[in-house]
Amino acid sequence: MDRAYYSDSIANFLDQSQDEILGRLSRSAATSGSSLESTQSTAWLEQIRILKPILEPYRAQGSVYFEYSIPRLGKRIDVLALIGPVIFILEFKVGEERFTSHATDQVWDYALDLKNFHETSHTRPIAPILIPTGARRAPAQGELIRAHDDILTPIHGTPETLADVIRKVLDFTQGGAIDTRVWEDGRYHPTPTIVEAAMALYNGHSVAEISRSDASAINLQLTTSTIDEIINTSRDRREKSICFVTGVPGAGKTLVGLNIATKHINKDSELYSVFLSGNDPLVKVLREALARDKVRYEKERGNKVTKGTVHSEVQAFIQIIHRFRDECLRDGQRQSSTLLSLTKRNGLGRSKGPGASCNRRRVVATSNTRSPSF
Fold this sequence. Notes:
Number of domains: 2
Shape: elongated
Largest sheet: 6 strands, mixed
Radius of gyration: 23 Å
Strand content: 15-25%
Structural class: alpha/beta
Number of helices: 13
Distance between the termini: 24 Å
């Protein structure tokens, strides 16, 4: 799985033109379904311009990755570079002049996530570096500090000091050069909380990216694929279907439902879905988490958006099943499609409420009191 929009050896990166690199980034973003804004292209060009002279001394020593996916957090690292034995996390804030605590925490989270959840990063030194491109000078850095597990505490740099920072980190660390192919093949296997999973899926990541790479995760992906096949077959044959998903608490049942719903989140699609749950506290937590994350995501890209507008979108996606059920009971004569209801009764999956929804849309629902699995 290619986790980055752009990945290549440092040598190839240096030999390619800015337009060629930008083209690859733009095509990968489009393929992943991300909307490309002019501000993003401008940011990429600035990052490329800064990095080319800085990486020249390391032409034969590693690889570089733009927009490297950190699916558990639902985010992407601006630039990740493998140079010698070190994993460099470079977070650019194009046009920014200050080293904010929020941005420092962000690059620190990236480092912790790679160290803890990316298999081939476990034993490697990781250097998180924050670079606001408009900053005239970085705060006095002092000595490099190794926090724990070979992660350096976040380093503040500017376009002018970045080359010196990289050189100091390489002098500070030890170990053999990272084998790029082995590192890229490393598994990413966190166990996300349901809130983290919801935010990642809502931001366009796949269940394959955020789940563990073990037997239970493989079963989760097979379950999702099976339900997808049932949905498509039901649509083609104009049939109604109910899917029963069972499993021990924490096995991934809710994650399956969220994954199916977010795959069909386009309101213009005939398979447009919403996620229904009978767990009122879960719905409230998910709605608030998704709304806050969406607002942050849009503001980071310079888009003006209100929390009220985002809340309305999220509430349309995640709903309480009981209200949906009650409306159907009041008017059971409406034309409708399929309601998928996943409920738990003493560990057994049973249908709940009417067998069809009120509106012409497919609904993925779960009415469990604890987490799901298939």
